[in-house]
Write a structure and sequence with these properties.
Layout: H1 2-16, H2 21-36, H3 40-58, H4 66-78, H5 82-95, H6 100-112, H7 116-129, H8 134-146, H9 150-161, H10 170-181, H11 185-198, H12 203-215, H13 219-234, H14 245-248, H15 252-267, H16 275-287
Helix pairs in contact: 1-2, 2-3, 3-4, 4-5, 4-6, 5-6, 6-7, 6-8, 7-8, 8-9, 9-10, 10-11, 10-12, 11-12, 12-13, 13-15, 13-16, 15-16
């Protein structure tokens, strides 16, 4: 994908012109690909070039310029340049006060800095603009948990999992973990099972089910769930699997955690079918990851 985008960048300016919409799109795509690969410093010039050209051709407040400002802010957050990122998000809000994405990102920054009150206000502003914004609901649930308000967190998480067209199982997984922490193990397992039914292609759904089952001593079922998660990571046909270079680096920590879980079962001396094979396969997959991709 990276080479294809580079080729497009060489050809399109000659054919369409430097400021043509498709040329800007190709530059933007190149930045996104590099960013997804963890090559943030290489991605930054592409983000800035798109923003510079959009401002020159379209103006600061054009609908196609505003996402470029916000996208640069997101990249700066990933680089740990929080003050610069905040400036980009605030500029977005100055140009479009009802830009929910900028408010959401400012909320994340405030939460990261420990400013809970500001984070809460930003996330609530997002909900005011879009009551079904699952990211803001999850963020508010996290703030509730941190403050000890488990009932509030559970209510928000149940609102999330009731939404249609959710792209990720984060709300389900966090609700399952919240119920576990409250000693409601059966409910936690039920939510985890619902997660695998709704998101069967997400390894995190199966890993949460495995962990919930393991804590109840249902070890054969737990290993089966871990095996499903492992198979998804290895499957060449899975859009969430290890075959996608741009997301490989996100899986190292997951694998290490799963290996620790499996070795814990073995250490207890409990006979579980396929356990040794699963440990070997997990360790082989972990060893296959390039060191340059980091921990994720």
């Amino acid at each position: 994908a990276c080479q294809f985008s580079r080729d497009a960048l060489h050809c399109q300016p000659r054919v369409l012109g430097d400021d043509h919409r498709d040329t800007l799109l190709s530059i933007s795509e190149m930045g996104f690909i590099l960013s997804a690969q963890g090559r943030l410093n290489e991605a930054e010039p592409y983000y800035r070039e798109v923003l510079q050209r959009s401002r020159r051709v379209l103006g600061d407040d054009h609908p196609n310029t505003l996402p470029s400002i916000s996208n640069l802010g997101i990249l700066l957050v990933a680089q740990g340049r929080f003050d610069e990122a905040e400036a980009e998000f605030r500029q977005t809000l100055e140009l479009q006060p009802d830009h929910g994405g900028a408010s959401l990102r400012l909320g994340y920054l405030a939460s990261r800095r420990g400013d809970r009150d500001l984070a809460q206000r930003q996330f609530e502003e997002v909900i005011r603009l879009a009551p079904d914004n699952w990211e803001a609901l999850l963020a508010l649930a996290a703030l509730d948990e941190e403050s000890g308000n488990r009932e509030g967190a559970e209510a928000r998480l149940r609102t999330v999992i009731a939404l249609e067209n959710l792209p990720v199982p984060d709300g389900h997984v966090r609700l399952s973990r919240l119920l576990e922490a409250a000693g409601r193990e059966d409910e936690a397992i039920e939510v985890a099972r619902q997660t695998t039914e709704r998101f069967p292609e997400h390894d995190i759904a199966w890993r949460q089910l495995g962990q919930a089952l393991k804590r109840q001593g249902r070890l054969d079922e737990a290993v089966e769930a871990f095996a499903r998660a492992h198979a998804l990571l290895r499957s060449p046909g899975s859009q969430y699997g290890m075959n996608r270079p741009e997301i490989r680096h996100t899986h190292r920590a997951k694998l290490r955690h799963d290996i620790d879980q499996l070795k814990y079962l073995k250490k207890r001396g409990i006979e579980v079918s396929g356990l040794d094979r699963l440990i070997v396969e997990h360790e082989a997959l972990q060893a296959s990851l390039p060191d340059s991709l980091g921990e994720g």
